[in-house]
Automatic annotation (TrEMBL):
GO terms for molecular function: calcium ion binding. The lineage of its organism: Eukaryota, Metazoa, Chordata, Craniata, Vertebrata. The chain crosses the membrane at residues 704-728. GO terms for biological process: anatomical structure morphogenesis; homophilic cell adhesion via plasma membrane adhesion molecules. Keywords: Calcium, Cell adhesion, Membrane, Receptor, Repeat, Signal, Transmembrane, Transmembrane helix. PROSITE patterns: CADHERIN_1, CADHERIN_2. It holds the Pfam family Cadherin. Residues 46-139, 140-252, 253-359, 365-478, 479-582, 590-703 form the Cadherin domain. The gene is cdhr1a. CDD domains: Cadherin_repeat (cd11304). It is a single-pass membrane protein. Residues 1-21 form the signal peptide. This is Photoreceptor cadherin. It comes from Clupea harengus. It is found in: Membrane. One of its GO terms (cellular component) is plasma membrane.
Amino acid sequence: MTNFNNIVPSLLVVFAQFTFAATHLDYAPYFFDNGPNSNSGNLALFSLSEDTPVGTQIYILNGTDPEGQPVTYGLTFEPGSKELFRVDPKSGTVTLIEELDREVQDEIEVFVSITDGRNKVTEKVQVFVMDVNDEKPQFQNLPAILDVRESTRPGSSVYKVEAIDKDTGSGGSLTYYLQSSDANGKFGIDRHSGVLRIKQGETLDFEKSTTHFVTVVAKDGGGNYKGKYQVLSSSSTLTINVVDTQDTPPIFVGSPYFGYVYEVSSPGSEIFTVFAKDGDFGNPNPIHYSIDSGADAVFSINKTSGCISLRAYPAHLRKEMFHIKVKASEVGPDGELMDYAITTVTIRVVDLNNHPPTFYGENGPQNMFELTMYEHPPEGEILRGLKISVNDSDQGANAKFNLRLVGPGRILRVVPQTVLNEAQVTILVEDSSAIDYEKSQFLTFKLLAVEIDTPERFSATADIVIHLLDTNDNAPQFSSEYYIARIPENSPGGSNVVTVTAEDPDSGLWGEVKYSIYGAGSDLFLIQSQSGIIYTQPWASLDAEVKSKYNFYVKAEDREGKYSLAEVFVTILDLNDHPPEFNNNFLETTMIIGAPVKIEAIDEDAEEPNNIIEYSIMKTEPDNIFDINADTGEIVLKSYIKSMDIVQNITNQKECTWSVVIQARDRGSPSFVTTTVVKIDITEAVKSRVITYFLSLRRRPSTVFNICLSTVSLAILLTVFFSTITYWRSVKKSRVQPRGKIRRVVRRPRP
């Protein structure tokens, strides 16, 4: 009974807890499964491009809690793995925080979790990294060096190029081709397999080219990268060394060959050595030399060195020239003779060159020749005073030499220019203008004779000295094309104006100069014929106001009439020799108050400042009420005079007439002064110009008479004109009009 009493309370407690749990049941949150093509859910099977920029929001974890409790999200990786994503706990936004590389990791395992605070659900999901075209092709067996025999046939494969591209799809498929610089070469490549072959119709030749450099390009099929389509390629170089084979005959070096047998040669003398080498440079064979023909038993050759030797004395040789055929054969490994080549050696029997050229005069060998002549001889003329011959005692080519004249410019020319044995030397004038006594009184030349075809190149020289005599070949020349002189107008007759200078470079009497002047402006001047000093005529009177500029020509002439001209410009300098003179038309005038009046004086001097005039008022009666402009001569009333009342108060007279003493002074040195009295009537400004004019007639009775006479004449003319018109009108009215004819018009009735 006691145990039962203890069990009952325990059962009651358990029942109460079960009842509370049933009434408060809490379910775990869960993710929405929207499939791999959705951007929200539990991230399962989500795929992401490897070129996605860091910081991009790539996914939204999306789930819910059955009880509607708020949920938070979490995202973790395997321990030791690189964390590539980050999730916002509240919004579930997943952000890329590291760069992706499919070639390093193409699948990412992620633990995503969702919790409501009490319950937490964690799921392991896989994210797939999608490929983009971001990897260049990589060669596996390039660069490389390859040896190929030159006998390899056209079309044969010589190498297989291998390259890989870590990208997938079209970005990982490769094609091969050769760079454009190799497109016209000897090799071609299969675009898909990468097999490199010798092109059809092409062969390798070690003797022409021992090495070929082939640049191979591997290009992928292209693909998108960061939103753009791109094709990636790589290039590398294959070095092909051509291996030589025995396929080329020997080659003679330095041909054609020429040798000489001299008069002092003896049997056994070495005449010439030929040299040949195997045309296959990579693995050459030794060479064997032999004479094929043309030696006539007088020459022999060393089979190893190729040295040709003389077997007889030169005096026993029957020909002057031998054409020897020399054969060069390759020696095989077993000593047999193989491919060969033949060349020709030309051997000439010649005289020994032991005599140099020599110049001769009239009395034997000579190395100095002199001549005296006038300057400027005609071009092409022979210098007959030079008796020169040249000789070389050798024979044949040893006696052939060139003649050359060395000196200042191309003045003289030697003939002939090529000599065999001997010749008479002729010197011709080529540039006459350069033979000038005034430039140089003597000319020096070197005459050279130099052998042409001999190793020794013997030569000889001779000096030619030409002394020049002067001729009258120059006209006098002035120091200037024109001369400018200035002389005051008050200069007396015989005054010095200017000195002209001319020089004649000729010598002696031909260099003496005589001066003269002529021209329209030369009448007032004369010149000393020897010194060139120009003077004014003794009677000349110079006046700048009459004429201030003269020009004429001066002639410089030598004794034979050769001359030159220069122009002389003479300016007469003005002096202040005229006083100012007043214009009488301005000495009586009427002034309207407020308006100026002007006086004028003229100075007949020619130049400033002698003809510049300054005006001033010296005296006025009855009182000074005027001001004057010193430059223009305008007279105005003083500023305080505004009306006639003020003027009449000053003069106390009805007639307002002033006498003003005006002075005119020029600015010359010394200065001239002229004075005059000006009568000025002052009138009111409101009066008309007609009234002012008539008031001024009181002092001009002759003008009044002319006005009256003109008025009477005009009245008479008008009377005659109107009388004539009246008369002709009356005559016209009194004429009898002619009787007109009457014309009767008969009208016809209409139908």
